[in-house]
Write a structure and sequence with these properties.
The chain is of the alpha/beta class. It is built from 10 helices and 23 strands.
């Protein structure tokens, strides 16, 4: 049994002063309030604030590796890097590629999930398939030659290849077969996120009726807002029963648009993501996303044709940016990177007894100073 204490603990719905968190075998055994000293506590973090560990539901790679490599050594490197950025769980996110490549990737990731995570590394919580069910009109960097019409049959094949580990699917709801595929995803327990889409208002509403639960990188790769035909973006910002995630790097979405998203989705339905690539944490140069060549220069990733492609932000920086752009407090910002994605996916709240002991540590100035990953203290990135 190991015990941790700090000045405060941000919980899914509030805050605990002077918590004592008891951990055994990397899992939470008990959380008590109002520690006054005298008990044996292995890790007294003083005036620090603890938050739940972050869950990145949309990331393609980091530290020189793409998750579609699906090799244990590559995923080990990605997972260790993410833990130092405060991410304790993540969805390994595919990108549109040849079906052979996609099947090989989901099989490899599923196999990796069956082994015990490294002690101080993030755990893969499932797979997010971003593509091949995207719109040609709003495909972004997704290769046109590999886009495939949605079908429940193909989703079933991907589900079987993943050994039932797909947790999230991005889809353009206006495509023929999309609504049937969304309905099938709901039957399988896969959450659907609408995105890479030129959908009209009516087509977006039909996706919600079929079971869509969220929206992928709000504003990016979506039909622009029009006052007579608000389209998918208008529906995403208007509905109070739809989660919506955003890349909060100040590049993909301006601070003004982030503030608009924050005002409309609120602290309960907004989710912070990175859409990070293997170039994250790497120097300027040429990298890849799936089967596409990507160029990193001055913190911006583009394809050969100049199309913006993913990001190199880490989730702890996205949390800091949200606070800077909107004035949100640390509790609100941290929940949007931890509690909200878990709730959208239907996962247990992160601080329940029996859940992994995953936390982030923030100092008195609000700077993240490390993480606790399944009971192990992990230093931050330099």
């Amino acid at each position: 049994m190991t015990r941790f204490t700090a000045r405060r603990l941000i919980t899914p719905d509030g805050m605990i002063d002077r918590p004592v968190i008891s951990v055994e075998d990397g899992r939470i055994v008990k959380i008590e309030a109002h520690y006054v000293g005298g008990e044996m506590v292995a890790h007294d973090l003083g005036e620090s604030t603890l938050t739940p560990g972050f869950l990145d539901i949309h990331m393609h790679g980091a530290a020189g590796h793409d998750v579609m490599e699906a090799e244990p050594s590559a995923l080990d490197t990605v997972s260790a890097y993410l833990a130092r950025a405060g991410v304790t769980r993540y969805l390994a996110t595919t990108v549109t590629a040849s079906l052979d490549t996609t099947f090989r990737a989901v099989e490899g990731i599923a196999g990796y999930m069956r082994k015990e995570p490294l002690p101080s590394a993030a755990a893969v919580a499932g797979i997010h398939i971003e593509g091949p069910f995207v719109s040609h009109a709003k495909r972004g960097m997704h290769p046109a030659e590999h886009i495939v019409a949605p079908s429940a049959h193909l989703l079933d094949r991907l589900w079987d290849a993943s050994l039932g580990t797909i947790r999230l699917m991005t889809i353009a709801p206006e495509l023929p077969g999309a609504l049937e595929t969304i309905a099938r995803a709901k039957e399988l327990g896969i959450r659907t996120s609408i995105g890479h889409s030129n959908a009209t208002r009516a087509e977006a509403l039909a996706a919600l009726a079929a079971g869509a639960a969220s929206a992928t990188h709000t504003f990016n790769a979506m039909r622009a807002l029009d006052h007579r035909e608000p389209g998918i973006l208008g529906v995403v910002l208007d509905r109070d029963d739809l989660f919506a995630d955003i890349i909060c790097d100040g590049l993909h979405v301006s601070p003004e648009a982030v503030r608009l998203w924050f005002k409309t989705k609120g602290e309960k339905l907004g989710i912070l993501i990175t859409d990070s690539l293997e170039a994250t944490g790497m120097p300027d140069g040429t990298y890849k996303l799936g089967e596409t060549r990507i160029h990193l220069r001055d913190h911006t990733c583009t394809t050969d044709s100049g199309v913006l492609a993913g990001s190199v932000i880490t989730l702890d920086r996205a949390v800091a940016n949200l606070q800077r752009f909107t004035g949100a407090d640390i509790g609100t910002a941290a929940r949007m990177a931890s509690v909200n994605p878990a709730r959208m996916l239907g996962l247990p709240d992160p601080l329940k007894v029996g859940q992994p002991a995953n936390f982030n540590i923030f100092d008195q100035q609000g700077r993240r100073s490390g993480a606790i990953v399944r009971g192990h203290i992990v230093p931050p990135l330099e």
